[in-house]
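Hello Y.,

Per our agreement to keep a running log of every chain we model this quarter, I'm adding this entry. I've kept the format consistent with earlier entries: sequence first, then predicted structure.
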Amino acid sequence: MSNLNEKAIYQLKWNYNHNLNRFYNGCNYLEEHTEQIDKFLPTLLEIKESLELFLEEIMKEQTVTNDEVLNGFKLGGTIC
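Predicted structure for the entry above:
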């Protein structure tokens, strides 16, 4: 266990949520524009890899539910 501080965990979760939204938007776009798959699939796969890295770091610090994996983390107030 790496003992990341609260701010670092918040940043990881925020980045996960942001990239999860990008991933879902990309999937939806490609479903509607299949002719663009060759152009955008590499970017979508990079986003997926980022999601996996963020999730791996978060899971070192806490248990993550399936809902959080699929829908993102609920984030309260801003931690500066």
